[in-house]
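new request in #modeling-help
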Amino acid sequence: GGGDYAVTLLDYGAGNVQSIRNAIRYLGLHIKDVQTPEDILNAKRLIVPGVGAFAAMMDVLNRNGMAEALHTYIEKDRPFLGICLGLQLLFESSEENGPVKGLGLIPGMVGRFDSSNGCRVPHIGWNSLKVKKDSVILDDVANSHVYFVHSYRAVPSEENEEWISSTCNYGIDFISSIRRGNVHAVQFHPEKSGGKFPISSFYVYLLEIIIDVGLSILRKFLLPNSSLTKKPLEGKATKLAKRVIACLDVRTNDNGDLVVTKGDQYDVREQTKENEVRNLGKPVELAGQYYIDGADEVSFLNITGFRDFPLGDLPMLQILRYTSENVFVPLTVGGGIRDFTDANGRYYSSLEVASEYFRSGADKISIGSDAVYAAEEYLKTGIKTGNSSLEQISRVYGNQAVVVSIDPRRQYLTSPYEVEFKSVKVRNLGPNGEEYAWYQCTVNGGREGRPIGAYELAKAVEELGAGEILLNCIDCDGQGQGFDIDLVKLISDAVSIPVIASSGAGKAEHFSDVFSETNASAALAAGIFHRKEVPIQSVKDHLLKKGIEVRI
Ligand code: 1PR
């Protein structure tokens, strides 16, 4: 069915395209999946999303004749929308695991961002665009932030100038979108660039006061007569926005229901006689609320995943499915990602567990305990086996899809030479006047300390393929006294992947403190949002006032 309202989707099978499916369905369109090259040639409108690695994609497309069909389709100026790798594949070649040849329709080579100029790679987060020409699909969003997640980019040149409809800056100017005739492609992710924003035009005011940023791009491509505004706005490229992330710690309570809970230094039980698990609300409802409130990302942590096998935990997958149908910002899920043998002796690889999370709507997965073991092993042997969950998942889904969650506990020292681990001079002395501390990594939700520091872990997991670090701190968790600036500084200066500061937010000032005193790319909070003490919007307003770039 679907008739005119069908869109053809090329899912080449080596990446996570659930989010684009959800967004298309949200707009009320049917999806027709490409099975054969003829399906491409017969498409009325074609979307080629791309998450994953360039070489793997081109390999699949070349092997089954899809590349040739795509080439013909685009040469005929048929309606095309490429997303991320779907933009990159139009160029001559990519450096990613290569050089590997692309379709060669646009002059230029896709290269890697250079992290030596102070920009973290992958480029993850929200930027606004510098619109070069009438791009049609970007008309409504020229002054808004859109979501990027990539390590490779194409750059403007005299040869490809005629294709470029917008650029963005991240260390260098790169191509954020192209348009020629009916052929469109964007480097960012419209399907993850949700969020409402007001349009000031009087006519629009009569129709609809707010529109979805990213979804409006898709809507304009898919339903060309849906244009709300006429004149393209002059957008200007801005700095990468600092992200504000809402985190939901999820676990089953004593009645067997999955609830959002929140600990004090990781203890999630009430200090009552019953000692029940603290219940702060329903996961899907809260996630939906945070999306509307302006969260740049939502994270779910299945905090007892280390003991309950997550694939047995169908409610968690259900939560992801429901949430991802209506939440169009990136979703991260963590907890229990590791190899596992169930009671019947059936073996599940961590890759299968992660794949199930991705299929259910996650954009990134987060690994805690298993990454600690992998890092310990790597530091001991100096060998990357390629077998750890971290390495396997990032190989298939890309580094940008793998977050490592660190749960360190502060261990005070009188001298930095007491331990073999990297220590810092702390701004608040320890209970016995200690001036130094190291940050001991833990596993199983803080229950077991391991012989590795947060600094050593962060550097090791970066080498093993993590795309981002979620940096908690058990001492600060739920205390509302601010982030552990010493720790966040230590880790964000040690790695060149983005670091998310977590644990301890109690007021808006804590966010500006962590962004002005450290190189964190994002800050995450739980308790203050759940208890409605500080709305997300007021955090953003405060950051803006402090001159810190945020997505509004
Ligand atoms: O080890 O791969 O199964 O992953 C388990 C995951 O669950 C890890 O990411 C770990 O951080 C998390 N986790 C385990 N136990 C707890 C617990 O609280 N008992 N929660 C837990 C971690 C920390 C943050 C929290 C911030 C902000 N919670 O997620 O949201 O500290 O809180 P605040 O703003 O209220 O201070 P694996």
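bot summary: Residues 198-210 have pLDDT under 50 and may be disordered.
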